[in-house]
């Protein structure tokens, strides 16, 4: 049996290849992909050749083993249907898995083989177009947990890609004093307002910092945000995040910059402000949560947030996997036109 798989071959070159599907072993399932979602921030780093080659692709996901070396298959948001099981599957396993709609952290390809232990059944009340948002929603849940927003706080979110928009939606449900977002693209700012931001600003404008502070101003004494999220993927945004944050405030860094250099001005107010820079990454639970939380518990919250916020409305493009090369050119050259791009099969 053959499948079609997207490969990153070198910087700025993605290609669809036909290859054999691995043979099924006991405990495995063959999945026919229905949809997969592009994570434009991470995948553009790979497409542009900016992923660090010495770093493991993902140490926690079996289908993403290896390093960021071309040629590379990537992607981690696939929804498909189980069409076959390995030899020796019990009647109970067949009842559980055969024809079941599942989510998998798997690259973009028309068919894939996975251990059933690595498949996540999609709840019956969630459609495939919503289910492909599971990794990004789980990331947004993780970001909110790691930021620990407090009632009445002033919060800013830099970056309104899919993760930024989902984080904004979650934060907008909390009793904050203000929620300001920053993004360079009008389409994303429009969505940010619809999802609950109290103000949304173009960070490229010279007056962006002052506009952000004005958007959070609710009383005379005000020296910056209590909590700022940097999830734009732009290295220069981290310096702006620090400048926006008040004394003893928190900056949660969810961006992955790859090999892009990050320059910070730490010789001024930052030196005395005693703010916290918090690294947040979804692959593992931060230490403060491990005593009571598991990844399964967090995943259940992510499913519930998908039900509540219906993220499939953020899909701007549904394109066949045969157009993979054109899709990545679109994201690279005209990012202002897209929010979430989905491969169809």
Largest sheet: 7 strands, mixed
Q: Assign the CATH topology of the largest domain.
A: Quinone Oxidoreductase, Chain A, domain 1
Count of separate DSSP helical elements:
11
Structural class computed from helices and strand pairing: alpha/beta
- Percentage of residues in DSSP E strands: 25-35%
**Rg value:** 21 Å
> What is the domain total for the residues?
2
What are the low-pLDDT stretches, counting only 5+ consecutive residues below 50?
none
Outline of this structure?
With 345 residues, the chain is of the alpha/beta class.
Structure write-up:
The chain is α/β, with parallel strands linked by helices and 345 residues long. It folds into 2 domains: 2-122 and 310-344, Medium-chain alcohol dehydrogenases, catalytic domain (Quinone Oxidoreductase, Chain A, domain 1, Alpha-Beta Complex); 136-288, Rossmann fold. It is 29% helix and 26% strand. It has 11 helices and 15 strands. It has helices at 40-47, 91-97, 128-131, 134-147, 162-172, 186-194, 208-216, 235-244, 270-273, 295-309, 324-333; strands at residues 2-10, 13-20, 28-37, 78-85, 101-104, 111-115, 120-121, 154-158, 178-182, 199-201, 225-230, 245-253, 276-279, 315-320, 340-344. The strands form 3 sheets. Strands 3, 4, 5, 6, 7, 14 and 15 form a 7-stranded mixed β-sheet that branches. The chain has a 6-stranded parallel β-sheet with strand order 10-9-8-11-12-13, sandwiched between helices. Strand 8, helix 5 and strand 9 form a beta-alpha-beta unit. It is globular. The mean pLDDT is 93.
């Amino acid at each position: 049996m053959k499948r079609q798989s997207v490969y990153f071959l070198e910087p700025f070159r993605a290609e669809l290849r036909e290859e054999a599907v691995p043979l099924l072993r006991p405990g495995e399932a063959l999945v026919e992909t229905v949809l997969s979602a592009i994570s434009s921030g991470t995948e553009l780093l790979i497409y542009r050749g900016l992923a660090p080659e010495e770093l493991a692709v993902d140490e926690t996901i079996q289908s993403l083993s290896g390093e960021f070396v071309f040629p590379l298959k990537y992607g981690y948001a696939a929804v498909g249907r189980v069409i076959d099981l390995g030899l020796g599957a019990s009647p109970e396993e067949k009842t559980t898995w055969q024809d079941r709609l599942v989510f998998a952290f798997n690259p973009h390809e028309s068919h894939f083989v996975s251990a059933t232990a690595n498949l996540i059944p999609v709840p019956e009340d969630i459609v495939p177009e919503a289910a492909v948002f599971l990794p990004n929603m789980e990331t947004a849940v993780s970001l909110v947990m790691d930021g620990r927003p407090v009632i009445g706080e002033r919060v800013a979110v830099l970056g309104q890609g899919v993760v930024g928009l989902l984080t904004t939606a979650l934060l907008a449900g909390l009793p904050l004093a203000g929620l300001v977002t920053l993004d360079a693209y009008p389409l994303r700012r429009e969505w940010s307002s619809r999802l609950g931001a109290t103000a949304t600003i173009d960070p490229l404008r010279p007056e962006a910092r002052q506009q952000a502070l004005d958007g959070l101003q609710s009383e005379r004494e005000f020296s910056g945000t209590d909590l700022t999220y940097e999830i734009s993927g732009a290295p220069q945004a981290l310096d702006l995040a620090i400048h926006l944050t008040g004394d003893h405030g928190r900056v949660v860094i969810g961006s992955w910059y790859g090999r892009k250099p990050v320059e910070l001005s730490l010789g001024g107010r930052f030196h005395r402000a005693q703010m916290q820079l918090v690294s947040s990454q979804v692959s593992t639970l931060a230490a403060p949560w491990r005593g009571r939380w598991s990844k399964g518990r967090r995943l259940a919250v992510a499913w519930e947030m998908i039900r509540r916020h219906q993220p499939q409305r953020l899909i701007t493009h549904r394109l066949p996997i045969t157009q993979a090369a054109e899709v990545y050119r679109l994201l690279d050259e005209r990012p202002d036109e897209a929010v979430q791009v989905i491969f169809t099969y």
